[in-house]
UniProtKB/TrEMBL annotation:
Pfam annotation, one family: Iso_dh
Source organism of the structure: Hoeflea ulvae
Keyword Iron-sulfur: no
InterPro entries for the chain: ICDH/IPMDH (IPR050501), IsoCit/isopropylmalate_DH_CS (IPR019818), IsoPropMal-DH-like_dom (IPR024084), TTC_DH (IPR011829)
Annotated Gene3D superfamilies: Isopropylmalate Dehydrogenase
Keyword annotations from UniProtKB, A to Z: Lyase, Manganese, Metal-binding, NAD, Oxidoreductase
Pathway this chain belongs to: Carbohydrate acid metabolism; tartrate degradation; D-glycerate from L-tartrate: step 1/1; Carbohydrate acid metabolism; tartrate degradation; 2-hydroxy-3-oxosuccinate from meso-tartrate: step 1/1; Carbohydrate acid metabolism; tartrate degradation; 2-hydroxy-3-oxosuccinate from L-tartrate: step 1/1
The name this protein goes by in its record: D-malate dehydrogenase [decarboxylating]
Main location: cytoplasm
Essential cofactor(s): Mn(2+); Mg(2+); K(+)
The protein's role, per its UniProt record: Has multiple catalytic activities. Apart from catalyzing the oxidation of (+)-tartrate to oxaloglycolate, also converts meso-tartrate to D-glycerate and catalyzes the oxidative decarboxylation of D-malate to pyruvate.
Similarity-based family: Belongs to the isocitrate and isopropylmalate dehydrogenases family.
The reaction(s) this protein catalyses: (2R,3R)-tartrate + NAD(+) = 2-hydroxy-3-oxosuccinate + NADH + H(+); (R)-malate + NAD(+) = pyruvate + CO2 + NADH; tartrate + NAD(+) = 2-hydroxy-3-oxosuccinate + NADH + H(+); (2R,3S)-tartrate + NAD(+) = 2-hydroxy-3-oxosuccinate + NADH + H(+)
Length: 357
């Protein structure tokens, strides 16, 4: 029996509610599997802790996570803490030291959920967006001078390294190669951004030589938003820089029906440290404490975590159970136009897993 040590970091707002639901479902999958156990340790890191102590996490927090097999993360962000402070204080403070350089965001229209695009069925919008997760526009480099004066200047420097671009490109080509359509779209803005983005294009062409079975093309990010909306079937695997993929994946989440169903994984492909799995949505304080957060994104996140741990059969069982439940509108939370509550959806998924439904 495999015993996985999972670190849970619920964080802020609805992060606490959806991670609690995710852990209930993880326990149910483990019980049913009979092949593995999941031993969950919860960390109370987040904005409450920051407001009380000045720090989002324990001293050396990322190092405390190293012994774990995987990390389940909720959300970070609070109305009275600037977003850039909480993002850098917790999420990036984990992703960067643990070398989780590949951010993977699958998109699919789950059964029973309607895309805002007309005539889009479950198989027509089946994408994986790969986001460079360690450098680029979010390298944190830049500064401000003459603060508050008319001549104030702020710089925000994007840093692209050959090593950083090449490793994400290899990851994306390999992922595309593993999917049935073997199709990759490399997104840049190399017409207007003449250095880093041109290097992206060059490295894509170099790496492509090692993946002869993959059909690939290049798109400018602005044209890509049009293609995602008007010709979604033409896409499969997508790779883009930190900023561009951040924006495209919110669009993808919206096109898949709700931000409340979209998962993401921060992967350390070499497995030199644990990877981190989280819903793409934030802490959503407008619905916090009401018990109506959609837990589907987190369930899908748990399935990605199981897949990464090597429990493909359990991941598949969980996704099938989730799809059985989303297919029924009585289990839709308000973001999907329904009246179900977080716990209704959670209990329904567990009932399917346990064969009671
Ligand atoms: P953050 O600042 O942490 O990013 P946010 O307040 O910007 O959080 P998001 O979580 O990014 O909010 O989502 C935007 C809106 O989408 C929320 O205000 C919320 O109403 C809705 N939403 C997000 N996640 C969910 C969910 N899991 N279930 C239902 N609605 C959600
Ligand atoms: Mg937000």
């Amino acid at each position: 029996m495999n015993n996985y040590k999972i670190a849970a970091i619920p964080g802020d707002g609805i992060g606490k509610e959806v991670v609690a639901a995710g852990v209930q479902v993880l326990d149910a999958v483990a019980r049913q599997s009979g092949t593995f156990e999941a031993d969950v340790t919860t960390f109370d890191w987040g904005s409450d802790r920051y407001k009380a102590t000045g720090s989002f996490m324990d001293e050396g927090g990322a190092e405390m996570l190293r012994p774990f097999d995987a990390i389940l993360f909720g959300a970070v962000g609070a109305p009275d803490v600037p977003d850039h402070v909480s993002l850098w204080g917790l999420r990036l403070a984990i992703c960067q030291p643990l070398d989780q350089y590949a951010n993977v965001r699958p998109t699919r229209v789950l059964p029973g959920i309607r895309s805002p695009l007309s005539n889009v069925g479950p198989d027509d919008l089946d994408w994986v967006i790969v986001r460079e997760n360690s450098e680029g526009e979010y390298a944190g480099q830049g500064g401000r001078s003459h603060r508050g004066l008319p001549q104030e200047i702020a710089t925000e420097v994007a840093i692209f390294t050959r090593a950083g671009v090449e490793r994400i490109m290899r990851f994306a080509f390999a992922l595309a190669d593993s999917r049935p359509r073997k199709l990759l779209t490399v997104v840049t803005k190399s017409n207007a951004q003449r250095y880093g983005m041109v290097m992206w294009d060059e490295i894509a062409a170099e790496v492509a030589k090692d993946f002869p079975d993959v059909t690939w093309d290049k798109m400018l990010v602005d044209a890509m938003t049009v293609r995602m909306t008007l010709n979604p079937r033409s896409l499969d695997t997508i790779v883009a820089s930190n900023l561009h993929a951040d924006i495209l994946s919110d669009l993808a989440a919206a096109l898949s029906g709700s931000i409340g169903v979209a998962p993401t994984a921060n992967i350390n492909p070499e497995k030199t440290a644990p990877s981190m799995f989280e819903p793409i949505h934030g802490s959503a304080f407008d619905i916090t404490g009401k018990g109506v957060a959609n837990p589907v994104a987190t369930f899908w996140t748990v399935a990605m975590m199981l897949e990464h741990l090597g429990e493909a059969a359990a991941a598949d069982r969980l996704m099938k159970a989730v799809e059985r439940v989303t297919a029924e509108s009585r289990f839709h939370t308000p973001d999907l136009g329904g009246t179900a509550r977080t716990q209704d959806v959670t209990r329904a998924v567990i009932a399917v897993l346990e064969g009671r439904n």
